Predict the structure.
Amino acid sequence: MIRFKYAVAAIALLPVSAFAEDANTASDSNIVVTATGAAEEADQSGQAITVLDKATIDARQYQAVSDLLSTTPGVTVTRNGGIGQPTAVRIRGAEDTQTLVLIDGVRVNDPTSPGGAFDFGNLLTGNIDHIEVLRGPNSVPWGSQALGGVVNIVTAPIPDALGGSLRAEYGYKNSKQVVGQLGGKSGIFSASLGGGYFDDDGISAFKGGTERDGYRQYAANGRVGVAFSDTINLDLRANYADSRVDYDGYQSTFPYSFTDTADYAKTQQIFGYAGLNVALFDGALKNRLAFTINDTHRDNFEPAFGSAPSFVARGRVERYEYQGDATITDAVRAVFGLEHENSRFFDGFSTERTNLESGYLQAILKPIESLTVTGGVRVDDHKTYGTKVTFSANAAWRVGSGTVIRASYGEGFKAPTLYQVYGAYGKPAFDGTQALAPLQPETAKSYDIGVEQSVIDGTLKVGATAFRRDTRNQIDFVFCASTSLCSQRPSGYYDNTARTRSQGVEVFVEARPTSHLTFTANYSLIDAKNRLTGETLLRRPKHNINASIDWNAWDRVNLGASVQTVSDSNDSDFQTFMPTTLDGYTIATIRASVPIGDRFEVFGRIENLFDAKYEVVSGYGTFGRNAHVGVRVKI
């Protein structure tokens, strides 16, 4: 930490010049930040990135971010029941614990969850402006946890003039949602404040249950900006969510079956960002100094055993960051940074801590106007696991008119979580006769190559990407059956048990034959297997197809429809825990919206139009046919 502070102090002494804007809040859909951690034009990155802009988010009308993500190439989503239930997002067949998630520049992966995964069950579309999804390891700019990919979520920007929006919706199972945002700028100050409320009666999390498992959330988000000059600006951001969800569990007496229960969980999340942006040498060197915090509280309750929480978890991650973005010449750019991270976890009995210091350097080169080559290296120094070096390289070649050929190589690194090491299911240090090797970090290497072709003045775009990722030392939960560790961990423990390989193809089509009609479709083939056993990984359907069409009819009515087809997947049976197969399914959605004047819009949709019966997690329920209506207001 001392080295980090000295480095930051030295940078602060450099002469100041033109204004530096924080790339984490870029709102132009042609600009991405997940590739290098700094703003970059999308066609200059060799990595596979999908951007979901505000227009797409509004048109699709989804309540949960996970439902929106499930329609993007290479992404699969599973949810243990209805809205608010535990939700996993997997990218290209990786574990959900290997998906790094950012909200307004803050890493929000849950420090209280066993594997550090972010639970998308508590993330609603609310006041989100746009989402970037990067597929493949990218640890050089983002560090630990970015083995499968990165999901970067940016909330609504501050408007220039005082204004805002309001959205209200009502629907299936007494679902109610209200979301609002208000902000503006005056002189050197700018600010915005948003809030949201969601409540529904829900469906039974247990697929055979009759008791409904509802969900409730209060949420707020805010931003404050102070432009001290054209060269220096202060950026403050905060997001808050207070959630409660009912869930089902296993009986406390024989036969211990999965069934309806009165269990529920409460979660409180606070994400904060404070950044100072400074530009030097007429904007040739942009600097960002930032502090971020991720504070998560989780309490589970099982009323059958009393009113006290059955599980308590408190987690906090504090990060100190410096990032430099130097334009050396028109053909040479460097993005570099220093980071220090403090993590702590409390499980109701003891508090465990660790820290991580990191540095990275990326070079972005344009040897010719049509070619961009990016290479980088990162060094992580973990308190427990020592030094780890990761590399990445990618290239984007813009061939002729509308053609982009991409290729990338990426490495990923993820240290074991504090829960996996020190929690109730941590791997013992001894097996009774000898010392055991401690948990090791997970690592991954990925390769992909793709091509995009845009024709007819950009009204038709097609693309395809082939990829492969190999993961080593993957951490899984080992059920204790006959090992020598059963006396110490009778319920099981975490250990490095697997080497996995995920390979496949992603294909997409985007067509805008007229200014009133848009069609998009994508197909993903994901073959994810355990390399030691040859078995397909659980909850990874091999085939996934999405298609969507939107029509602005007569400049008055917006009509749309979406179809998603998912193939069979493997899982563990919810009662016997033996291998089972979940059948594939197709679900369709239709939607419409009607503007009323310049400020009002009425919208509605019917999801699962044909009332398909399906499971994405063995034993858990899913929504049947359901309908919602709402209104949007511009303030």
User: Anything to note?
Assistant: Confidence is low (pLDDT under 50) at residues 1-21. The two ends are 46 Å apart (CA to CA). DSSP finds five helices and 35 strands in the chain.
